[in-house]
Amino acid sequence: MKIELIMKDGNPVGYKIIPETLEEKKTVGTVRDLIFFGFEDTVIKYNGLKLVDGGTKRPEDLVHISFIQKKHHGIKV
Questions:
Q1: Which of 2, 31, 41, 51 could staple 61 via S-S, CB 3.0–4.6 A?
Q2: Per-residue confidence at 62, pLDDT binned at 50, 70, 90?
Q3: Measured distance CA(72)–CA(34) in Å, rounded
Q4: pLDDT at 9 over 90
Q5: d(CA 71, CA 42)
């Protein structure tokens, strides 16, 4: 799976998620549904990032970022 930034005048204004397998296409569809159908306590919120042990917020230390429904916000994943 790839993510490509959408740029306008040299600035990022959005992104494309590009699935490369059937399983990734299903995952992207689920992500879309979570975003599109979320409201009130099921709205998707940024849930933080995980770094390698001892890492700082440098790109090479990033393990993942997560987003989760508001009602589950703060759960460590």
A1: 51
A2: very high
A3: 13
A4: yes
A5: 6
